[in-house]
Design a protein that fits this description.
CATH topology of the largest domain: TIM Barrel
Shape: globular
Bound molecules: guanine, zinc ion
Number of helices: 15
CATH architecture of the largest domain: Alpha-Beta Barrel
Number of domains: 2
Structural class: alpha/beta
Largest sheet: 9 strands, parallel
Distance between the termini: 29 Å
Oligomer: single chain
Helix content: 25-40%
CATH superfamily of the largest domain: Metal-dependent hydrolases
């Protein structure tokens, strides 16, 4: 028997990439008071007419329905250090993050942490994510298992780090390769999971380990690769000392075979024109992490320069450097970062980057990121306001962009009414 559900509300998604600065955009698909007909987890049809009596219904009339958000860079064990005071990147890692990640050597801690983390994503409106667990194989196992249980679209992998990290947080090339191969065999392509060769960042991997990571990518082009690049100036200087032969920080990865269509590079604040050209050439993406960049004082990412150079830009919470799992909070920070450079990020551009844009950059746009027939019914239902200020602002808003922009600027997870994965409610307020 087919599993059916008809979901009703005001549908907002995108049929193309909105242009910079356009508050009126043909790329916006606004379908108020429409029905999504979902069969066996897939969107079968989108229509204005109510379905027949044989369809069970979830009626969210008057609420906004968006594709589930895609967070392209986030650390599952770092809920324990979110909002930690007083440090920039390298000190922050040593003081807070590494000690917290050590606990994930324990399978029970890793399982409990993975469940908490994924349920928190769902409670913030995120249905797909590219995730760093820890160096411990059990932490990746726990994350994949918890993702499969929830039917979530996750891209993740055991973190590689074989130097410049404390005891209990280092692997070695031989063991790391064996662990990666086992995890790939068990999880890559199973349920809605994919494996990412996960290099923490260049300073914590030896050249031998980077080369091993590159070999894994070369053997299987369906694998993703995730890492950090050019986030903080002290970090950039350190990489220059460690890899004097490389032209740039990004070039360290390129030389190891880690720059390709399925590469996700977090931050990318301190890239130059040649780096941007290399990213475009490879079809790789930058996971812009504005909340983290502001909180750690890392710098202001130039989104327009990246776009002008043809680089795909997605948006990421980077919790726990970022201070919220909410993609609404993250996009509001992205707006402010661009404003500092005299640029204005439209609601369309912002929401596109967190849905269809990210799906496209991850080569997953045949599955997620839009509300259209054939795609997975991964979506979220939002209230327009969560308090009197938002409610008042919505009352006086004129026009769709003004309303959606104010919603995204004022809103957060308190506006979330329900999260569906494959048409199944996985979170309700
Ligand atoms: N660079 C290396 N590791 C990390 C991390 O955990 N968070 C951030 N923001 N940057 C990093
Ligand atoms: Zn990060």
């Amino acid at each position: 028997m087919t599993n059916r559900i008809a979901i009703h509300g005001d549908l907002l998604d995108f049929s193309a990439e909105p242009a910079w600065g356009e508050t009126e955009s043909a790329a916006v698909r606004w379908r108020p008071g429409h029905w999504l007909l979902v069969e066996d987890g897939r969107i079968a049809a989108v229509q204005a007419e109510p379905p027949g009596p044989d369809w069970p219904r979830d009626d969210h009339a008057g609420r906004l329905i968006l594709p589930g958000f895609i967070d392209t860079h986030v650390h599952s064990p770092q809920l324990d250090v979110i909002g930690s005071y007083g440090t920039a990147l390298l000190d922050w890692l040593d003081t807070y993050t590494f000690p917290a990640e050590r606990r994930y050597a324990d399978a029970a801690v890793a399982a409990e942490g993975a469940a908490l983390f994924l349920d928190a994503l769902l409670a913030h409106g995120t249905t797909a994510a590219v995730v760093f667990p820890t160096v411990h194989k059990v932490s990746a196992e726990a994350l994949f298992a918890a993702g499969a249980e929830r039917g979530m679209r996750l891209v993740a992998g055991k973190v590689l780090m074989d130097r410049h990290a404390p005891d209990g947080l280092r692997d070695d090339v031989r063991q790391a390769e064996a662990d990666c191969r086992e995890l790939i065999a068990r999880w890559h392509g199973r349920a809605r999971l994919a494996y990412a060769v996960t290099v923490r960042f260049a300073p914590t991997s030896t050249p031998g380990q980077l080369a091993m990571a590159g070999r894994l990518c070369a053997e299987d082009p369906t694998l993703y690769m995730q890492t950090h690049v050019a986030e903080n100036l002290d970090e950039v200087r350190w990489v220059r000392e460690l890899f004097p032969e490389a032209r740039s920080y990004l070039d360290v990865y390129a030389r190891a075979g880690l720059l390709h269509r399925r590469s996700v590079f977090a931050h990318g604040i301190w890239l130059d024109d040649a780096d941007r050209a290399a990213l475009r050439e490879a079809g790789a993406q930058v996971a812009h992490s504005p909340s983290s960049n502001l909180f750690l004082g890392s710098g202001l990412f130039d989104w327009r320069a990246a776009e002008a150079a043809g680089v795909a830009v997605s948006v990421a919470s980077d919790v726990g450097g970022g201070t919220s799992l909410s993609m609404l909070r993250t996009l509001a920070d992205a707006y402010k970062v661009q404003a500092m450079a005299g640029q204005r990020l439209t609601a369309w551009k912002a929401l596109h980057a967190a849905t269809r844009g990210a799906a496209h950059a991850l080569s997953l746009d045949h599955e997620i990121g839009s509300l259209q027939a054939g795609l997975a019914a991964d979506l979220c239902v939002w209230d327009w306001a969560a308090g009197p200020v938002g409610a008042r602002r919505m009352e006086v808003a004129r026009g769709l962009h003004e309303k959606v922009f104010a919603w995204l600027t004022l809103g957060d997870e308190r506006c979330l009414a329900a999260t569906y994965i494959d048409g199944v409610r996985r979170h309700s307020r």
